[in-house]
Amino acid sequence: MGETCGNKSQMAGKIRLMTEFCSHSSLGPEARIVKQQDVHLWEVSQAYHELIAYINTVSTTIQGLRLNDGFPVSPAITRLAGIFDQLEAMIHNNPPIMVDNAASFASSIEQGNKAYRRWARSMLRGIYPMVEKAVPASKCQYVNELGQYLSGSFGNSTRIDYGTGHELSFLFFMCSLFRAQILQEEDVAASALLIFARYLKFVRRLQVIYTMESAGSHGAYSLDTFQFMPFLWGVAQLSYEAPFSPRQMLDADVMTRYRSEYLLIGSIGHVADTKMGTFAMHSCQLWSLAALSSWAKIYRSLLFMYLDEVLAHFEIMQHIRFGKLMPFSEAAEGRQMEHARLGVMSPLRRRQLELKLEEERRQQAPDQAPPKKPAPKFAPPSPDFEDSESILSAGTTNTSLTDASVHLRSPSKDDVADKHL
After folding, report:
1. How many CB atoms lie within 10 A of CB 128?
2. pLDDT tens-digit profile of 301-357?
3. CB 279 within 8 A of CB 287
């Protein structure tokens, strides 16, 4: 009798634990935008503010820098970049399906190469262990969320397509790395000029090898069939001491000389390589932007375009998932949007020049003792990111990273007109 009561008590305990487990609203990131009205909730969410802060902080930091410049690369960045080497190996193990005749070839071009689905299955099996090995053991609680954002950034295996929603999932991945303090303030430039550039090169390879379709509607008025961010961040790179003007960005000689140094020119070169005809015919949006007088104006137009045509687009946002690192809950009352400060030397570029001058002085006077290094401006990571502001959080008018005002004024009528250029 006592044994029976003990069994019942043990069973009741298991049922209680299972009930508690199943009562959780989500075991990981979940889709929160299920109807058009939810887009407004997204636009006032913590995740939205964090994303815009990350985009604009990167833009401020990388202006004046080239892809092959000597920006800081931490061990964390190196480990994350190694993920793409493993994903590249999966392409070799899942080559595109060869076709025997013209009709089959036309069909494969139209529908995408089915070998992509094999690659996607391999990626899903391996991506979580890859992320786990790339982040510190103390951050293992974030592997599930980071893995979902990263796995969602390579396209859709059912439709064999790719679009700006998949690119946005990768931005969630990058932003979450800062939110979890896996990446630090000094990693901002490398997150765009190394990690995002590596991602961009990889997804372009996927698109070409597996003849992926473009997700959504893209025509002559789009910047690119698949991407958006390399144009926005590419313009930010050129916003300080650019070696050519906006009117020259479509010139063949500029593409030849600078496509490996600037995200924008690399993207324009890719468009020229994959489309036939003139830019006025196949990419009239790019052709129109080249007529603007400054890179800052182009950046503003592109940012408004991104906010309006990607982040406010229900068909894109319904597929995005939100979790602990990128919460859908409403942002703190009074929190202001952060914005980029372009046209001035970025703090990172200034520090690089200061170090260069210091090295030159040291070589001229080798017996002179080197000056003491100043203490870092940012505080050490907090063990709980939710109880402290990340480097991308609002709530301040200045940051040690940008030394710039972070209050975004409401767009005027002229601004609204500009974003439809």
Report:
1. 16
2. 999 999 999 999 999 999 999 999 999 999 988 788 878 889 888 888 888 888 888
3. yes
Count the helix, strand and coil residues of the chain and give each as a percent rounded to the nearest 5.
55, 5, 40
Q: What are phi and psi of 162, to 5 degrees?
A: -150, 145
Task: Say if CB 232 and CB 59 are below 8 A apart.
Answer: yes
Residues with Cβ within 8 Å of 254's Cβ and at least 6 positions away in sequence, in order, are 244, 248, 265
Can you read off the two tokens belonging to residue 276? 């036939």
Q: Which of 14, 262, 410, 240 is nearest to 249 (CA)?
A: 262
CA separation for the pair 100, 104 (Å, rounded): 7
Cβ neighbours of residue 192 closer than 8 Å, sequence gap 6 or more: 58, 61, 62, 233, 263
% the chain with pLDDT above 70? 76
Question: Is 145 within 8 Å of 133 (Cβ atoms)?
Answer: no
Nearest CA among 181, 170, 171, 195 for reference residue 142: 181
Query: Please, which residues bridge with residue 314 across strands?
Result: none
Do residues 223 and 231 make contact, with C-beta atoms less than 8 angstroms apart? Answer: yes
CA distance 59 to 263: 12
H-helix or E-strand spanning residue 162: strand 161-162
Determine which helix (DSSP H) or strand (DSSP E) holds 89, and give its type and residue range: helix 75-93
Closest CA to 168 of 181, 184, 187, 155: 155
